[in-house]
Amino acid sequence: MAQEEILKALVQFPSVVGQPNAAIAGWIVQYLGDLGIEAQLLPGPEGDRANLLATIGPRDLPGLVLSGHMDVVPAQEPQWSADPFQLRAEGDKLFGRGTSDMKGFLAAALAIVPSLIALKPARPIHLAFSYDEEAGCRGVPHLLAALPSLCALPAAAVIGEPSGLRPILAHKGKAAARVEVQGRSGHSSRPDLGLNAIHAMGRVIAAADMAASTLSGGPLDPVFEPPYSTVQIGTIRGGDALNIIPESCTVEIEARAIAGAAPAALLEPVREALAGLRAEGFESSWQPIASYPALSLPADAPIARLLTQVTGEAPLAAVSYGTEAGLYQAAGIDAIICGPGDIARAHKPDEYVTRGELAACVDMLERLCAQFVQENL
After folding, report:
1. What is the pTM of this model?
2. pLDDT digits over 135-193, tens only?
3. 357 catalytic, yes or no?
4. All domains of the chain, ordered by start, with CATH?
5. Active site annotation includes 209
6. DSSP letters along 261-317, please?
7. Of 4, 71, 134, 357, which is the active-site residue?
């Protein structure tokens, strides 16, 4: 099957993050099985979602991973021109949810499998497709944990997030959490009888603001914009009416860390403020939403040099969005970002990838895999 036909099939699966993914994973397993390649489904703890791993070549040598995620963000925006889960072509553009982020890369990787089989690579090429990346990279840690029992530690991984096929060396790490404060309700005329959860949350917010102000002074890494780690609260909910003491208040908070900083550690001042409320009778909860480390790959790493040679593009030092690449690097696998499409089109109505971008990705991946095998990275 050609890449566009594969992309059409993949887009038809509404594999929205946080939902069961047996349908799309099963289709990929069948596609690879028809080519004589066994794919393994690796169920996650949720029970209704699975990662997928397939290998072309020997499993006992360090190989190259082509990594992508099968999930997509929801497509509920009214501005879609047509059904977001039906691939639609207009000229060179192929519209549909996930075309750029990142079923286009999956389609290209699957399209080269016949070429890889014919190549008979002396070192393995792995297809590693994950679930729930859009929920904070929740699926891939389980895939990485299973790798030692499935194959030799890979030498490198290409994470095919949309980058215009330009290699990317770094991104910030992230930790995010949902924080709730529970107080005691009552009539606003007697605040002395209640516990105002919004007022209490104000101290948590102040701690987040102080942490953010402190981080802006460094440490600094000029490859990022901004060049320092950040903390911010993005949502807040609480209260029922002006004359009711608010019983609960919930915020969602995130930290984005430059390489060398632990994202979760940046939120410790906020957790300390939250803990301090308990002595006053408030109850609280801290629910992690997302956590992944930063990526920082040296420009002279073998996979960076090889991708620069294959794409003809000098690597971009860093991007502001996060990916699974940092988790691969933390697992001891050199990781780099390079995929078709544009991140600016992702998570928006009428998301698209072009036929030219898909074809260029297929060509890039075929040459990359052939060079990887020859150069013995």
Report:
1. 0.91
2. 999 999 999 999 999 999 999 999 999 999 999 999 999 999 999 999 999 999 999 99
3. no
4. 3-170+294-375 (3.40.630.10), 173-292 (3.30.70.360)
5. no
6. S-HHHHTHHHHHHHHHHGGGT-EEEEEEEEEE--EE--TTSHHHHHHHHHH--PPBS
7. 71
